[in-house]
Write a structure and sequence with these properties.
Layout lengths: L17 H19 L4 H33 L4 H24 L1
């Protein structure tokens, strides 16, 4: 006579055990998420801030240099506009390179 409450035989190896298999799968998923997962809000805000300064600093430097040259030569805003554009272009290029290396 067969009793319905007899325990089933243990799996032949640890690989066949569903608990071991699911635990390893969860560990692997968590490790992958930690290495490739989403960044925190603080880190994203910091990157946005850095990106802003990467654009702003060359732009302001070009503005300052152009204004200084215009003040020395009495050329109005000729060099200010040109250096402002150059500074903005350098800042945009630097930001583009920084974003594509991350």
């Amino acid at each position: 006579m067969t009793d319905d409450k007899t325990p089933s035989p243990p799996p032949s190896s640890a690989e066949d055990d569903p608990l071991v298999r699911e635990t390893r799968l969860r560990r692997d998923r968590r490790a992958r998420w930690l290495s490739e997962g989403d960044m925190s809000i603080g880190r994203r805000l910091a990157q946005i801030g850095v990106l802003g300064w990467i654009i702003v600093i060359p732009t302001l430097a070009g503005l300052y240099a152009g204004h200084w040259i215009d003040a020395r030569n009495g050329t109005g805003v000729f060099w200010t506009g040109a250096f402002l554009f150059v500074g903005l272009a350098v800042g945009g290029w630097t930001a583009w390179k920084w974003m594509n290396t991350r």
